[in-house]
What we know:
By secondary structure, the chain is α/β, with parallel strands linked by helices. The chain has eight helices and 15 strands. It has helices at 21-24, 59-67, 84-90, 128-133, 145-148, 206-210, 220-237, 247-252; strands at 8-12, 16-20, 32-36, 39-44, 47-51, 76-77, 98-102, 121-125, 155-159, 163-164, 171-175, 184-189, 194-197, 240-242, 256-257. A hairpin with a 4-residue loop joins β12 (184-189) and β13. The longest helix is centred in the C-terminal third of the chain and has 18 residues, at 220-237. The two termini are 18 Å apart.
Amino acid sequence: MAESKVRRMWALPGAQLSAPMSLLMQGGDDKMLDLPCPSFLIEHPKGLVLFDTGCNPKIIDDAIGYWGEMARHLPLQWKKSDTLDQQIKNVGYKPEDVKYVILSHAHLDHAGGLTYFPKAKFLAGRNEIRYAYWPEPDKRWAFILNDYIPTRGYDWIELDQDFDLFGDGSLKFLLTPGHTPGECSLLVNLASRKILLTGDTVHVRAAVDTEATMPLDTDPIQSVISIKRIKAIRDMHEATMWITHDPQDWKEHPHKVE
């Protein structure tokens, strides 16, 4: 592998949602967990890269009005001072400095900030955006159409295979479908360590060893294959796995890595 050219990575806090374990993994109980919904900003000489965009800030004032009745089942904590654009400014950049946005998948807690970056190039897995516009009826609540309509003229690329973003081994887009058709993960090669950002390939640590799927998965069999895959990639690269919504990961992993 070529020498890493990633300079640093920030984990940017966003909304905190509360949900039962039964929603996060098959076999989970009704215990409520407080779930972070972060984005990850990555500094590379060829441009700033953002992995995921969190929730739409409209939910701060009116979650039910923007997300619908499902918002009643996802208690929310979020301040206007913690919106994604402000978090990017807090580390010394502006939203317009972001050159690439990688969308792990199109659910409401990952794709809500797309419109902050109209000039960026957007990367997603194959069929992810098409599915977001017209998902299966029992999964429509998790996709907010108004998160996407303003982005129809954006520069979207849907990838059907793994992709080395800069050709130097520093950022590797990994297809890990199953939770959604185009779910992806990102392997970040920093000077001090390798970090595997899993998106929602898996939701909590408890589901990693047991390879438990999530009730919302579009293809549970493929989900298990993808969980096995990220475990193998973690072990092969001796990488730290960062599960986006896991509260322990958010608490224990450093939010700035160089």
